[in-house]
Amino acid sequence: MKRSCQLLHPLIPLTLGLITLTASAESKTPSVEELWKIIQAQQAEIESLKRQQQSIERKAETAGEKAVTADQKAEAAVVAVEESSARTAGAGSWADKTKLGGYGELHYNNLDSKKEVDFHRFVLTLGHEFTDSIRLFSEVELEHSVVASDTNGEVELEQAYLEFDLNNRHAVKTGDFLVPVGIMNETHEPPTFYGVERNPVETYIIPTTWWEAGADFHGELGRGFSYSLAGTSGLDVETSGSDAFLIREGRQEVAEAQANDGAFTGRLKWTGLPGVELGLTGQWQKDITQGELGIGATLLETHADIRRGPYGLRALYARWDLDKHNVINNPTNPDAVGRDVQEGWYVEPSYRTQVGTIPGEWGLFSRYNVWDNNAGSSNDTRMVQINSGLNYWPIADVVFKFDVQTQDNDSAENDNGFNLGIGYQF
Fold first, then answer.
1. Which residue of 4, 59, 266, 347 has the lowest C-beta tally within 10 Å?
2. 140, 193: one domain
3. Based on the domain organization, do 45 and 146 belong to the same domain?
4. Which distant-in-sequence residues (6+ apart) come within 8 Å of 263 by Cβ?
5. Residue 131, preceding peptide bond in cis (omega within 30° of 0)
6. In the listed set 62, 89, 116, which residue is the last one of a domain according to the structure?
7. What is the pLDDT, as a whole number, of residue 30?
8. Using omega within 30 degrees of 0 as the cis cutoff, is the peptide bond preceding 30 cis?
9. Do 166 and 32 reside in the same domain of the chain?
10. Entry pTM
11. Complete DSSP assignment for 185-202
12. Is residue 378 within 8 Å of 209, Cβ to Cβ?
């Protein structure tokens, strides 16, 4: 439209001039000199109109440039305000990106071996999200209430790691973290399991709670499968005495830990059905004596953790195989004979439901545990323990527990009795 107007402006006077000539030709025919003067006058008028048009266009373009510049400045100002607001909001939302949690449990044990009350664990967790893809998680634990030279109390840094998202399905964490193995090692808050004490298989064979320092790549593979691949510090077991080669006693807890030989752990999990977890873990360490005897060790663990409606079932099997059987099975160290193989398993059916109009849920369970830290021996050194009892959750994060414990062992004194406990998480 603009181009059409530009063409019409110089044609208007020319058209009018032709009309005038046509009309005057009927009344009077001008001479050649008069026609030349008329044409020159009209040409001058056309040139003047062109100059005016060009001037108008230049002004319009200048005004447009100024308008664009003004829009750009306005947009830049908006962006600056938004960035400033974001910085201010980020500073103000530090607390929103920091999460505090924890759990704890109080036990009363009335057993043949002891009658005691113990605030077994008081744990605080702290997490902070630096960005959408970088976060910190930490966990500090106080065990047995008091830390002093004449008590069994401890303060432990169980976890302190940074986690980085590599994409929407894969991430890596590095620092001090729980080894990805078993059912309870990574999830052991009191409301998440039955019984007052943690089961003996995931205490003496796995051994829960077990943490190391290193890096862990983990993520989702699709179709319900997930994985973890970790390279970490390793165990350092005793080589003499009654605790020789016991896996649990080899935990270094990342406390000035010997690092001559590390460990490599791989886990595959399947959670393709709601309430179902199937897991398989393997770990290999070149030398669990950290250069002293060169004894390699391999762990294999598999488990099922199922809850469908009110019915639940947990089952787990774990086994360690240690190299240099002749070194371990040394007659000069009789307590260690057979510790080249250490294994255990348990099965735990349960039923959880609401009872009448009582708020919360009740759960009944029974667990059959078998473990043997001297399984390589020709003697029967198995330990068998049955725990049966109930949990009551008034709300999901608070639990009251009771269980009866019975043992039937030929190789050790039986430890029978009952346990009471309360626990929480937040």
1. 4
2. yes
3. no
4. 212, 231, 232, 233, 234, 235, 283, 284, 285
5. no
6. 89
7. 61
8. no
9. no
10. 0.78
11. SS---GGGSSSSSPPSHH
12. no
